Amino acid sequence: MKRLILSMIIMIGSLSADIVSDGFNEYNSGNKQKAKKLWSKACDGGELAGCYNVGFLYSNGEGVRQDKQKALKLYTKACNGEYHSACTNLGLIYSNGEGVRQDKQKALKLYTKACNGKNPRGCKNLGVMYVNGEGVRQNKSTAKEFFGKACDGGNPSGCEYYKRLNEQGIN
User: Fold this and answer.
1) What residues have CB less than 8 Å from 61, skipping those under 6 apart?
2) What does the alpha-carbon distance between residue 17 and residue 11 come to, in Å, rounded to a whole number?
């Protein structure tokens, strides 16, 4: 019985992942409404990538009317489920005050969660906050650490920021 339940869970997860992939195919061929439908179905099935992708559509008004509140809810659901790209995007919403009260402290926490989850954009955004002193005391050494993590994770702007701080002699 336990094997049957486990097999069903794995199969449902696999189907949701296939739906996310199908959504990318639709998105890339320009059918954003069909992508939204597929990703929404995946999200409803517990696939956090689907939630993130629908949040992206709402955040940017692609194939849907832009709605930062819907994006916020979807990104929150994905971030709470440890989908770290969603934490980064949620951090951007709070950092910029897009449809919410600007909250640099909340952005800092979200970027930290994303970076701890190995999301290079989250690390880069943390570095930017430290280099500029946004919501934290300016600390270029700490910023350099985060830019290094971003660079190691494949984020080109993290590498560029790291290089600049290195050229300035920041340890």
Assistant:
1) none
2) 10
